[in-house]
Amino acid sequence: QVQVVESGGGLVQPGESLRLSCTASGFTLEYYDIAWFRQAPGKEREGVSCVGSGDGNTYYADSVKGRFTISRDNAKGTAYLQMNNLQTEDTAVYYCAAELMKASCTTAHAMGRMHTSDYADWGQGTQVTVSS
Question: Are 129 and 13 in contact (CB under 8 A)?
């Protein structure tokens, strides 16, 4: 059974950093595209970043470019989202998602946007709060 588990969220002040982890259970991470989405209260879930399997292509939403870095360690079965210079508008529940069958991150690269429907397996989310 495919399970995705996020960790690493917390409360930080503006300008600080956090690293989120996404751990795979029941599947081999290296074969999956991995994505991070976030959802703030009252807003739709939005794509933040993704990394493809194989070629390791990455995509970032404009709002996080230059501040967030996605990576994966297939040997450890874990993907990461390093978030630097966090701002209050980054406050949200962050979700990790995985997809085996579609080239979801390649599509995001081509279309300039991530879609929740491109990912089949989701974690429960981890809260990130940025506040002074």
Answer: no
**pLDDT tens digits, 71-103:** 999 999 999 999 999 999 999 999 999 999 888
Nearest by Cα to 3 from 23, 25, 20, 29: 25
Distances (CA, A) of 91 to 13, 57, 99: 11, 26, 25
Sign, CA dihedral 17-70-43-111, equals positive
Q: Is 95 helix (H, G, I), strand (E, B) or coil?
A: strand
Alpha helices, DSSP H, located in 2-130: 104-111
Q: Are 72 and 52 in contact (CB under 8 A)?
A: no
Structure-token match 């588990």, residue found:
5
Contact yes or no for 121/1 (Cβ under 8 A) = no
Question: Given pLDDT bands bounded at 50, 70 and 90, which one contains residue 47?
Answer: very high
